[in-house]
Design a protein that fits this description.
The chain has 84 residues and is an alpha+beta fold. The protein has helices spanning 58-64, 71-82; strands at residues 26-31, 46-51. The protein has one domain (4-82). Helix content is 23%, strand content 14%. It is globular. The two termini are 19 Å apart.
Amino acid sequence: MSAIDKGLVICGEHEIGAYRDFGITHVISVSNLGITASIPDWFEGDRMTFQFGDVISVSDAASLGTRAPDADDIRQAIDFFSRA
């Protein structure tokens, strides 16, 4: 069974259009700080947005002047998907 059969797809922003007819109900958007992630006009479901840098650690984020994801981000994402 594929991920799409289970209702989970991980894709880039430029790829989401390929899933238009799959009945997507929830989207989590992740973008760099200060960048607004777009969402297709056809999507009418629930959405959660996170903004943090593309980094591998808190110290990496600090050296690049951005924010790393933290445990609270993970908790929010799990809570969001548990309601899906």
